[in-house]
Write a structure and sequence with these properties.
alpha+beta; 2 domains; ten-stranded mixed sheet; six-stranded antiparallel sheet; binds magnesium ion
Length: about 290
């Protein structure tokens, strides 16, 4: 049966003009005879309501158009169902889309939607909420907090914030339990990765697999300032696990017992984590369309 689609469009995700983009995309879809409907989100937290409405009204594949945050909101409704979902990356980081080679170019989208293959992927869980890329605490959460307060978006906003915060940051003291084993220490960041990257091809967990039922937990210990460029290169070059101050563990569950920091992030957005924080996975719980051959 030919698929039809229900687009949930975040008009203000990412650094570029999504309204103009979606207009062009609609023209392309009509040209190809693809059947669809669309709704725009009006505010953060609106996407789940739109998705729930569409689920009872039609059999269409839900397609989120936006960043990792928009995807998170829409996909969270579909976790645990077998309903197919697709995503068109228009955010600042686009971690999951980059990992799965989901296209953002208008010319490539009809093929992705028509010939895409449903793949069951693992979904991360932090307390009662889901994450699809990464969540965690430490320096990256501080940056997410900065980013949320910023009036501009995109890569350079991230870069500026990283540069400004780095000089005074001293790491965070934490007590964790990983699959029943205690671990305490001071870390620059600790990241719980379902996908292999934060977004922008910054690979925080180069070997993370979306279907192995395991979370990759990346611990970065505090490091001298002169190492910062090496860390950046290692992140972009997929070799962060080779650095002496980095350790990656694969586990099923984590509990954060105590932490001396207020900031968590979840899929790049600031997250209000209630203690104790429990992090786990739901295996193969989302049916996501990935590009076909
Ligand atoms: Mg995994």
């Amino acid at each position: 049966m030919k698929r039809s689609f229900e687009f949930i469009v975040n008009p203000i995700a990412g650094p570029r003009d999504n309204v103009k983009y979606f207009k062009q995309l609609k023209a392309k879809l009509r040209e190809r005879g693809i059947s669809f409907d669309s709704k725009k989100t009006k505010r953060a937290g609106h996407a789940p309501k739109l998705v729930k409405k569409r689920l009872v009204k039609s059999e269409a594949v839900i397609v989120s158009v936006g960043g990792d945050g928009t995807f998170n909101e829409a996909a969270s409704v579909l976790v645990g169902t077998s309903r197919e979902m697709a995503h068109i990356p228009r955010g600042s980081g686009n971690g999951l889309a980059r990992m799965l080679k989901i296209p953002g170019k208008i010319d490539q989208i009809p093929d992705y939607l028509e010939r895409g293959v449903g793949r069951l992927i693992d979904v991360g869980k932090i307390n009662d909420d889901y994450f699809f890329c990464t969540c965690g605490f430490g320096f990256d959460a501080l940056i997410a907090h900065d980013f949320s307060k910023s009036e501009t978006r995109g890569f350079w906003t991230y870069a500026r914030s990283v540069f400004n915060q780095f000089w005074s940051y001293r790491g965070v003291e934490v007590h964790l339990v990983l699959d029943g084993e205690d671990l305490s220490g001071r870390f620059f960041t600790v990241t719980f990765a379902n996908a292999n990257q934060y977004g922008n091809d910054a690979f925080i967990a180069p070997h993370a697999d979306l279907q192995d039922g395991l979370l990759d937990v990346t611990f970065i210990r505090p490091f001298p300032l002169v190492m910062a460029p090496v860390l950046a290169l290692a992140l972009m070059g997929k070799w962060i696990h080779k650095l002496p101050n980095v350790e990656i563990r694969q586990v099923k569950t984590v509990e954060v017992r105590s932490i001396a920091s207020a900031y968590f992030h979840c899929d790049g957005d600031v997250y209000d984590a209630q203690m104790p924080v429990k992090i786990s996975l739901e295996e193969k719980a989302l049916n996501l369309l990935v590009p076909g051959q």
